[in-house]
Amino acid sequence: MRFVPIAALALSVLSVTGCTRWSMNHHLNNAYSAYDRGNCEQVMLELSKVDRASRARPYVRPEVSMMRGQCLERQKLFVDAAQTYQYIIASYPQSEYAYRARARLETLESLGHYPTRSAAAVVRPTRF
What does pTM read for this prediction? Predict the structure, then answer.
């Protein structure tokens, strides 16, 4: 009979502090919940906690970066979001998130929030 409360206590301690994967998943789930509520400050906090918990698990980094970019877009920080998407494409070119990042960049370009590649090529520095 004493086993059940002790096991529950041990599981709660492990999920909060012990097992990195559980902690990382917990913070990632919290980030998604905060994103759904539109609370980007909480998303960024939870993603920071995921980053700290995932140092040995690099497979989660593109997902974290993608969510960070989406929050930056929501905060109207379009250049920062685009740079985050470019980081995903450069660092994880074969991942699902690179595909999604390319789509987000195209959307930013079509909405006029990020200069198109051809427009950037036309801009020339002025001489003084």
Answer: 0.72
